[in-house]
Amino acid sequence: MEFLMTYGWAILVVLAAIGALAATGVLDMGNLAPDKTTFPTPMLNTEAAVVTMNGGNIEVQVPFANNFGKTVVINQTAGYGGTDDCESPIDFNATPANPGNNDEFIATWTCPAGDFNQGDKFKADLSFTYKSTTSELERPHSGNVIAKIQ
């Protein structure tokens, strides 16, 4: 019985140490996740997103390549939305707004910073709409971003 009690106390001490590390944020697995930006074709992201603090807002910039086959118009006033850490983007901008086939453009979402600080992990599902210059049919395009705030 004494043998089992010794092992029981040792296991209890290890569990308490793990609990203390988790409570202080040392074992926060969210901060260990790699940066990842995923948007599918035809508007494929060409690089990982850059997430920065700008005043009281967070700016998410994603470079894209237009592989739609035609010149498109990126909708700059509607069609964006987000979840997770960017539930209500307050601004969206694409530069240039009318990329030709195989041209690159940068999409920028601006979100309220809330309780975020530099160095925190940011995660959001973001979207925009686009249409061909020869059609009025708007197409949604969405993807997700996980990145450290710079």
Plain-language structure description:
Strands 1, 5, 6, 9 and 10 form a 5-stranded antiparallel sheet that branches. Strands 2, 3, 4, 7 and 8 form a 5-stranded antiparallel sheet that branches. The chain is α+β, with helices and mostly antiparallel strands. It contains 1 helix and 10 strands, in the order αββββββββββ. The longest helix is centred in the N-terminal third of the chain and has 23 residues, at 2-24. Strand 7 and strand 8 (104-112) form a beta hairpin. Helix content is 15%, strand content 41%.
Present the secondary structure layout:
Blueprint: H1 2-24, E1 36-38, E2 43-45, E3 50-54, E4 57-66, E5 72-74, E6 81-82, E7 91-95, E8 104-112, E9 121-132, E10 139-148
Antiparallel strand pairs: 1-10, 2-4, 3-4, 4-8, 5-9, 6-9, 7-8, 9-10
The largest pleated sheet is described as: 5 strands, antiparallel
Strand content: 35-45%
* Shape summary: elongated
How many discrete domains?
2
Class per helix and strand makeup: alpha+beta
Overall mean pLDDT: 86
- CATH architecture assignment of the largest domain: Sandwich
Q: Please, how many helices?
A: 1
| Fraction of helical residues | 10-25%
Order of SSEs:
HEEEEEEEEEE
CA-to-CA gap between the ends?
55 Å
| Count of strand segments | 10
Query: CATH fold name of the largest domain, please?
Result: Immunoglobulin-like
- The top-level CATH class of the largest domain is Mainly Beta
Rg, Å, rounded: 22 Å
Low-confidence stretches: none
